[in-house]
Amino acid sequence: MSRYLLDKFLYTVDRDPELVERYREDPRGTVAWWEAERANALLNCHPAEASTWLRLTDAEREALGTHDYPRLFELGAHPFLTLTLFIAMFERDHEEPLAFQREYARKLSHFTLPYPDIAT
Amino acid sequence: MATVVAVIASTHHPFYYRASTATGEDRPPFADEWVRKIHAFRETLTRAKPDVLVMVGSDHFHQLWLDNMPQFLVGKAPFYDANWYNEEREFGLPRMLLRGQEDLSAHLLREGLDAGFDLAFSNELRIDHSVTCPIITLRPEADLPIVPIYTNIFAPPLPRPGRFVALGRAIREIVESWPSQLRVAIIGTGHLSLELGGPRQFGPHGPDPEFDRRAVEWIATGDLDGCLSEVTLDSLHGPGNATHGFMDFMLMMGVAGAGAKADYVDTLDLFHTMEAYFTWYPNGAPA
């Protein structure tokens, strides 16, 4: 389990306008590129000081690669990060205000308390 | 010594800026009432004639990240740029620049450390909507210097509620021991019941109106004992998965003091969440 890395993907994509669009258009390709090139970047350090050990699990890679946000919730991705990024990618496809946010809630409606653990 | 002229606790709703500035068909039906309430709330700060604002909020994974996460952090910088690309994108928030009050930052850090709070600090902090929302609602001129204080209500493990209250008490004492003649308002924002990224989000009301009712009562009456006896890190999952932001309200109850009844209380039941606004005047209401 690499919940931290799942969150790191969502965090680093959400804050970068180009990556938001790239992930929307090509989720599998973006996840593969990110895991190869960015997953081990230590964010406040010189690129040469990268980490060496971070890797997504198959389940995490698949959930990210298929935009499967109910599965990300189940895997314990931080719900705020997932929500913010997915609003950025898909709110535009809905005409009514908040329609995407409500659909998102509906798709998670099978979850009851306690929700999956999000501690990293 | 400095005077605490107002203590203010508020929700921070990132949609207020867009709702209040929208016109025509884009203006939501609740905007006029919301603006009226905000203007009345703003007056409670204006009347206190503050010189400096201590602003308590929580970074929403903007600058502070899981590789190096502080529990409590005090900004100490001459300026703070504010708002982030994803807040412009989602909420239409404007970029802002606020002045800092470094002497008070230094005083809070030194005295806070000596009082047993291992405060982190930042000399280059870009602040987010947890601080800029109350600037927009309470002091839209953005003309007063600030001291931002960030709390971790977001990335577990979190400090327990009692720690937030204790820090609030300490902030009050430390500000009142600042050798300055300036008038300080201490402003903090958090949430009542709130769900983000979960099945109970974006409903017609907040996810737990009963929690909201009781929370408003605790805050308005200064019932710290009642609040602390019922609110735990575990219990806060019940009203909504982002309800740990209520601990910033508890911090502000610590600032106001046990048993301190708020001089001003107002609420607004909106979709998704309840808004709540509180002001205390520790040295009596201004004329």
Automatic annotation (TrEMBL), chain A:
This is Extradiol ring-cleavage dioxygenase LigAB LigA subunit domain-containing protein.
UniProtKB/TrEMBL annotation, chain B:
The lineage of its organism: Bacteria, Bacillati, Actinomycetota, Actinomycetes, Micromonosporales. This is Extradiol ring-cleavage dioxygenase class III enzyme subunit B domain-containing protein. It comes from the Bacteria. InterPro entries: Xdiol_dOase_suB. It holds the Pfam family LigB. Residues 8-261 form the Extradiol ring-cleavage dioxygenase class III enzyme subunit B domain.
